[in-house]
Amino acid sequence: MTVQSIVLYMAIGIIAGIASGMFGIGGGFIIIPALVYAAGYSQFTATGTSLAVLLPPIGLAATIEYWRRGHVNFQAAFIIALCMLFASWAGAWFTRKLNGLHLRFGFGIFLTAVGLYIAVSTLRKIRM
Asked: In the predicted model, is pLDDT for residue 57 greater than 70?
């Protein structure tokens, strides 16, 4: 591992950490595109690496801070986490059957759709 790659990974981590703490995002919206385009990872390796990254820091640090302020519903979190456990396995299993370019295309469509939804719904509220 080179010094340049360490610095790149540190920058990705800092940006994703700030975005995670502020908006609850990081992996799909920041880490994966950064690993694909800045670090040259395949879509599959970027996704797997992002999943490995997100387990400890987001699961603990940000959750504790939100919990301290009374902004965590543990019952909802448990139900969602339980469903995600099985659904994430199914999603990972399904991607084995995809070409990397198809996966990247689908990821781009997903990011675009979410971005458009957020922009349009916010614009409607601004105009009210």
From this structure: no
